[in-house]
Amino acid sequence: MKLNLKNPLVFFDLETTGTNINTDRIVEICYLKVFPNGNEVSKSMRINPEMHIPEASTAIHGIHDEDVADCPTFKQVAKEIAKDIEGADIAGFNSNRFDVPVLVEEFLRAGIDIDLTKRKFIDVQVIYHKLEQRTLSAAYKFYCGKNLEDAHTAEADTKATYEVLKAQLDRYPDVLQNDVNFLSEYSSFTRNADFAGRIIYDDKGVEVFNFGKYKGMSVAEVLKRDMGYYGWIMNGDFTLNTKNVLTKIRLRESGMIK
Fold it and tell me: What are the CA-CA distances from residue 14 to residues 161, 170, 173, 252 (Å)?
């Protein structure tokens, strides 16, 4: 089924030095940009993470330190990537929980405060897990009838994710709508205010903490009651994006920004 798009939709996948959103870095990125008219443009690049790639991660994606030693750093290609995804909605496999937060962190480290708040995010893994509960390789076999060769390479995983979403639309016409807004909502677990899911929106659209002793409580109310909590988060092991979102809420509540 051809995707029904109003905006370009960028499918992307990352290979990284590890699974810590706060500290691990990208070593490979591939994205496939699908336009409303059906045209497709893909790009793949390896990134020097400026840190050692642990052997456990290399065992998964096969990328060693020497493979990326002469590659550009993320900061050197950040503007190019930001331009490529500008105005596009985002799709991936486990992207809402990992790939998007990691990408946002890399942009922030590079000094690019990219605004993704108006984008739609489709997580093909969430759709798959809700309906079938398998891995990407199994999803590719189940929906597309093919074995996923070169699994855990960004390019293969990105293309497979694109094919799986189209096949899901064909298989579940009574459940899924060929509409980015619907697919984004369907593949979201929570309404995140930050990409790491530390702050979410409740049923009334109010930002609330999603962790710790103030879980479920209004962020604005907590900041009024316990300003030390703001400092604890700003000095703690939280993503830059989480800290930025928290700061914007604080400034908004103080009347400094609207």
Answer: 12, 27, 30, 34
pLDDT at position 197 is 92
**Res. 113: pLDDT tops 90:** no
DSSP state at residue 192: B
Give residue for tokens 């979410």. 200
Pairing mode of beta strands 89-92, 121-123 = parallel
Evaluate whether 88 touches 119 at the Cβ level (below 8 Å).
Answer: yes
85: which residues sit within 8 A by CB, 6+ positions away? 10, 12, 31, 33
Ranges assigned E (strand) in 25-169 = 26-34, 40-46, 89-92, 121-123
Model pTM? 0.77
User: Are 215 and 209 within 8 A, CB to CB?
Assistant: yes
Report the share of the chain in percent with pLDDT over 70.
Answer: 98
Written as one string, the DSSP assignment of 223-254 is HHH-HHHHHHHHTSS--HHHHHHHHHHHHHHT
Query: 80-83 — which CB contacts under 8 Å span 24+ positions?
Result: 81/29, 81/31, 82/107, 82/112, 82/114
Query: What average pLDDT does the structure give for the chain?
Result: 94
CB 41 within 8 A of CB 130: no
| Bridge partners for 15 per DSSP | 28
3 state DSSP class of 248: helix
103 closest CA partner among 190, 33, 29, 206: 29
Asked if 208 and 200 count as a contact pair (C-beta separation under 8 A), the reply is yes
Q: Quote the CA–CA distance of 79 and 107 in Å, as a whole number.
A: 9
Q: Given a cut of 70, is residue 237 above it in pLDDT?
A: yes
Give the span between the Cα atoms of 37 and 81, in whole angstroms.
Answer: 22
